Q: What sequence folds into this?
């Protein structure tokens, strides 16, 4: 049976500062297809273009040329406002440095994406507590995010990415600042999410991520071009 | 609950917690803002209160006052001038008045002494209304020899305070020949009329003539009352033509003079305060445009978790509105208390001038919706603009800024 594709990139190019002296071609003719429920690792050295690729998949900005469709929506045709709405409804982000607001409580950080959606405060708290329990940090809900450990911060970031039940999770170098134990814990949570039907894209240099059994395939990114993209090619 | 309303409630809730997180910074802005609004509101309230008080107090004043001028200076007016006016149609009554200043050497203060004949005045009932106690001085029983009697006098509040006189008390004033004239307090003016009566000693015209030794047949000025108020200006013009050596003042002109004085002083102060407001707006602009790295990062994080630019603008608008709205109410409330309960102590010297005797009168500010709206427009709206516009610039940063963190 044919798999349903969540991400479809065809001949995607991204050029920064086009026509200027400092023009940079970050992506060149990229083709990438990711099916629903797949977990993919984007691997490559710094400056290879993997963060730009993740940003296009994350609907942060459209490509300079080529066709990019995320969850059935053509990004090039979406005005900025709808790009934001599409991102909000479809994608949960986990950042390298977590990007939490340290002065806010754990609970408030997690519910942040729900506030502009008009979800009532009670419902926000209920959803956040379900996730905190699932991730084992419900006892930290009222702690300021600036006063919890690195592992707990990672879980809060994951909870925030999941609060709106988005089908696609993007993680940018999520283990770069974690020790090996926490990195293992992180990948274990990702494996659980994959099992629950989420599609996950992770950028990483970390072999622990690329070689994790839950990863379906590794996509190499070099000088703005992608290499191994066929799911069946990944052993 | 409606989703849009729930969204706004969420934003207000987040704005409040955000303000609390930066409570010292926001508290300082709130205090400075409340201070600026307090100053502007106080001036505005004092000006409107003074104008209203003047209009109320001048209500029973004569429609027209005639003064004789010689070489540009006022001098006593012959009572014979009354006859020259008898031919003018529309005049109800012409009443002479004697007034002048009495210098009290002990207290080094000037009192205003005024003498009228209340029985001749068409609006005599108003005189009773401005008295808190007692009655207005009546004609002496022996009008031919007033110097032989004890003269009744109505005193303004500062005079009774300065001379330590209660109702019914006796006191004496010197005539120009240094003989003493004995008076008895027959009435005390209401504090509400202090603006015009605080330093006043009101006597019957005969007693005032005796005190100042004004020759018979002369008075300080003539008060004219007319039948039709709409004809006041017309009659004033005709009086000026009939008495070319006279200065003719209408009640409206006197009121306008007061208003012009208060308005000028208020305007002068307002210019100074607007400069303070402008400085505050620059401060607010600087605060909003010079967002700290933490604030910029917060905006980037909000964008990356799905907040749209209008959501962030709405959040910052709520924050600004909460600060500015609270500061506005606080400033306005403090101004009202300052004006009503502390008689605008901070600005009294600017607004009412300095004199040997400071008139202390009760100000009753009239806070009207249009005044509140004007103050709101002058203070809160510039602050909102100064906060929201730079935030809009900041909120337009690309969301990928957060990704690179």
A:
């Amino acid at each position: 049976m044919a798999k349903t594709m969540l991400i479809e990139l065809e001949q995607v190019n991204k050029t920064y500062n086009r026509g200027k002296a400092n023009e940079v071609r970050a992506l060149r003719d990229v083709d990438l297809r990711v099916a629903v429920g797949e977990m993919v690792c984007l691997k490559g050295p710094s400056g290879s273009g993997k963060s730009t690729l993740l940003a296009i998949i994350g609907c942060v900005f459209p490509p300079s040329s080529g066709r990019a469709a995320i969850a059935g929506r053509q990004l090039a045709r979406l005005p900025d406002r709808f790009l934001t709405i599409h991102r909000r409804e479809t994608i949960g982000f986990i950042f390298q440095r977590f990007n939490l607001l340290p002065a806010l409580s754990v609970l408030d950080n997690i519910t942040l994406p729900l506030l502009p959606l008009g979800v009532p405060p009670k419902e926000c708290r209920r959803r956040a507590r379900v996730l905190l329990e699932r991730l084992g940090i419900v006892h930290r809900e009222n702690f300021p995010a600036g006063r919890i450990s690195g592992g707990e911060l990672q879980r809060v970031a994951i909870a925030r990415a999941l609060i709106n039940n988005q089908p696609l999770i993007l993680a940018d170098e999520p283990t770069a600042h974690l020790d090996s134990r926490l990195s293992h814990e992180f990948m274990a949570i990702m494996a659980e999410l994959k099992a629950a039907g989420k599609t996950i894209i992770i950028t990483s240099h970390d072999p622990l991520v690329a070689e994790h059994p839950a990863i379906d395939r590794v996509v190499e990114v070099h000088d703005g071009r992608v290499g191994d993209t066929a799911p069946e090619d990944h052993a | 609950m409606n989703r849009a309303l729930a969204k706004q409630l969420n934003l207000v809730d987040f704005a409040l917690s955000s303000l609390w997180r930066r409570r010292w910074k926001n508290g300082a802005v709130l205090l400075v803002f409340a201070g600026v609004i307090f100053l502007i509101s106080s001036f505005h309230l004092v000006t409107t209160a003074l104008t209203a008080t003047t209009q109320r107090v001048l209500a029973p004043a004569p429609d027209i006052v005639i003064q004789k001028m010689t070489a540009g200076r006022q001098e006593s007016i012959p009572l014979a001038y009354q006859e020259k006016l008898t031919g003018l149609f529309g005049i109800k009554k012409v009443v002479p008045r004697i007034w002048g200043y009495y210098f009290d050497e002990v207290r080094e203060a000037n009192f205003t002494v005024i003498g009228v004949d209340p029985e001749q005045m068409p609006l005599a009932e108003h005189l009773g209304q401005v008295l808190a106690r007692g009655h207005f001085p009546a004609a002496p029983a022996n009008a031919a020899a007033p110097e032989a009697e004890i003269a009744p006098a109505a005193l303004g509040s500062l005079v009774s305070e300065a001379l330590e006189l209660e109702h019914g008390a006796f006191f004496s004033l010197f005539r120009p020949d240094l003989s003493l004239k004995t008076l008895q307090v027959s009435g005390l003016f209401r504090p509400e009329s202090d603006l015009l009566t605080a330093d006043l000693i009101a006597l019957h015209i005969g007693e005032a003539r005796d005190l100042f030794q004004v020759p018979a047949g002369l008075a300080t000025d003539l008060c004219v009352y007319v039948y039709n108020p709409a004809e006041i200006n017309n009659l004033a013009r005709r009086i000026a033509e009939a008495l070319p050596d006279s200065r003719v003042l209408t009640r409206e002109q006197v009121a306008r003079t007061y208003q012009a004085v208060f308005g000028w002083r208020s305007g002068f102060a307002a210019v100074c305060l607007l400069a303070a407001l402008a400085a505050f707006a620059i401060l607010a602009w600087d605060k909003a445009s010079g967002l700290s790295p933490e604030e910029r990062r917060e905006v980037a994080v909000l964008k990356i978790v799905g907040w749209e630019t209008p959501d962030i603008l709405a959040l910052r608008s709520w924050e600004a509105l909460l600060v500015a709205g609270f500061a506005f109410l606080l400033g306005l409330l403090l101004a009202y208390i300052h004006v009503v309960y502390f008689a605008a102590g901070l600005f009294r010297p600017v607004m009412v001038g300095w004199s040997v005797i400071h008139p202390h009168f009760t100000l009753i500010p009239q806070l009207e919706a249009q005044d509140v709206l004007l103050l709101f427009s002058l203070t809160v709206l510039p602050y909102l603009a100064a906060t929201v516009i730079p935030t809009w610039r900041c909120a337009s940063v690309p969301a990928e800024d957060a990704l690179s963190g």
In short: Chain A has seven helices and ten strands. Chain A touches chain B through 35 residues (CB under 8 Å). Residues 5-230 of chain A form a domain with the Rossmann fold fold (CATH 3.40.50.300). Residues 229-235 of chain A have pLDDT under 50 and may be disordered.
